[in-house]
Write a structure and sequence with these properties.
Length: 463
């Protein structure tokens, strides 16, 4: 009897027996089954075993084992009389079938997660430098004086990771979608070339096709979408070109085709949709009152994930200097506190030291530097359930904020860290301050409870 014999026997029994298994492989943390009859699976009993949970990917049933997956896999194969196969990657394709709306949504989240999860170290590293600027720069203790070499160096280190996100996400998207990494990098280099920044907003044409120049620094969606489409262009070109000409012409032809697609369609689409989303959101409170504020708070995380939030923030910054903002900044803060609640809940619930460390880092970056990306990319999109708990918690606080009223008159309140708190405390009237505190506490508490009780999954400990 081996160490994992009992577990292997229980797994085989609860997937319907060895005769129900048509294929079995494993990745770095999971057993992946293709089965004849899905109705024979007893997921409830499987979850009671020493496993981290179960998951469906298309027609493939997955059991999350963790670091011991290879040993468990070998034992299952031995007990079931199945020939062992090599380790597979997370991107192993599932059996194709017509997908439901739920499966399409899960596929989109899986695509985003696959592109964003690998860049978590980059985001966290840049966030740490931003935290130093926030604490010791001019808006903090002013130990680091603006204009000094050290301040400039740390500021550049903090901004660089975010500015070059299109390059990082192009690289990870190429790996996720099995496209050429070099083609993806070249396309992202073109997108963030300094020439475009100097021409932002100007009319331009690509092969005679009209386009409005955009600045793509710090964006993620344009590069992910472009690399996704580029994968199909590459395959078409590689089928047409003789192998002898592939090395010479494949990249140039791919990029030449992608230029109008990226610069005229996919790239500007983010700003186009962002502009209309901005109009929609700024009218929600007029149309639906407090419910509109709740919707804004719930949707704000999705805007940040796609980079569309910058248009909304810019609008508020311009208008707040002349007219007090009645609801947008209050809704924003409900979302900010919801994002802070997620890593705290996961830190307290997790058993895996790596998971705890990641959650603590995300929480620290949010509290000190006001940077939400580590939490969004590292926890929310990656594990999916926190996306719902964040939205529900933010909506609860937003609803209260809309009912009580939290008008803002100071730009300092827009900072998403301790500087914003100082802005509210020092500039808001006492009744508004109380309303703001009540709304963000509700947002935090609701998100924390939902994440701790439901949003946390055993998969988080199988990192």
């Amino acid at each position: 009897m081996g160490k994992y014999t009992d577990l292997a026997d229980a797994i085989i029994e609860n997937v319907g027996g060895k005769e129900n298994i048509t294929n079995l492989v494993h990745c770095v943390t999971r057993l992946r089954f293709n089965l004849k009859d899905k109705t024979k699976i007893n997921e409830e009993e499987i979850r009671k075993l020493k496993v981290f949970g179960t998951n469906w990917s298309g027609e493939q049933f997955q059991i999350i084992i963790g670091n011991e997956v290879h040993d468990v896999y070998s034992e299952v194969c031995s007990r079931a009389g199945i020939a062992e196969k090599p380790l597979v990657g997370e991107e192993e394709p599932a059996v194709k079938k017509k997908k439901s709306l739920k499966e399409i949504g899960e596929a989109v989240l899986d695509g985003l997660s696959g592109c964003l999860t690998p860049i978590i170290p980059l985001i966290i590293g840049s966030s740490m430098f931003k935290m130093i600027i926030a604490l010791f720069g001019p808006m903090g203790s002013n130990i680091l004086q603006e204009g000094s070499h050290l301040y400039t160096l740390i500021n550049v280190a903090g901004d660089a990771g975010f500015f070059f996100l299109p390059v990082a996400t192009a690289y990870t998207a190429a790996k996720k979608f099995n496209s050429s990494i070099m083609n993806a990098l070249l396309l992202s280099f073109i997108m963030i070339h300094p020439t475009w920044a100097a021409m932002t907003g100007e009319a331009f044409s690509v092969y005679g096709i009209p386009a409005t120049i955009q600045s793509y620094g710090s964006t993620i969606l344009p590069s992910i979408l472009s690399v996704f489409v580029m994968g199909y262009v590459e395959k078409a070109i590689n089928k047409i070109l003789p192998k002898s000409l592939n090395l010479v012409f494949s990249t140039a032809l791919t990029i030449a085709i992608m230029l109008p697609i990226t610069l005229c369609v996919l790239g500007p689409a983010g700003n186009f949709f962002g502009a209309y989303i901005n109009i929609f959101l700024t009218n929600l409170q007029k149309w639906f009152g407090p419910l509109g504020v709740a919707v804004i708070a719930a949707l704000y995380g999705f805007l940040v994930l796609t980079g569309m939030h910058t248009i909304l923030v810019t609008t508020v910054m311009i208008s707040i200097s002349t007219t007090p903002d009645p609801y947008l900044i209050g809704a924003l803060w409900c979302w900010i506190t919801a994002v802070l609640a997620i890593p705290l809940a996961i830190f307290l619930k997790a058993k895996n030291s790596d998971t705890k460390a990641l959650a603590l880092t995300c929480l620290t970056a949010g509290l000190t530097a006001g940077v939400s990306e580590p939490t969004l990319f590292g926890l929310v999109v990656r594990f999916k359930r926190p996306l719902l708990t964040m939205s529900l918690g933010a909506a609860a606080g937003g609803l209260v904020s809309g009912i009580l009223g939290t008008p803002c008159t100071n730009l300092l309140c827009m900072f998403s860290n301790f500087l914003g708190i100082i802005g509210w405390v020092t500039t808001a009237p006492s009744n508004v301050l109380i309303h703001w505190i009540i709304s963000i506490i509700i947002s935090f508490v609701v998100t924390f409870i939902l994440t701790y009780k439901w949003g946390y999954t055993p998969e988080m400990d199988a990192m």
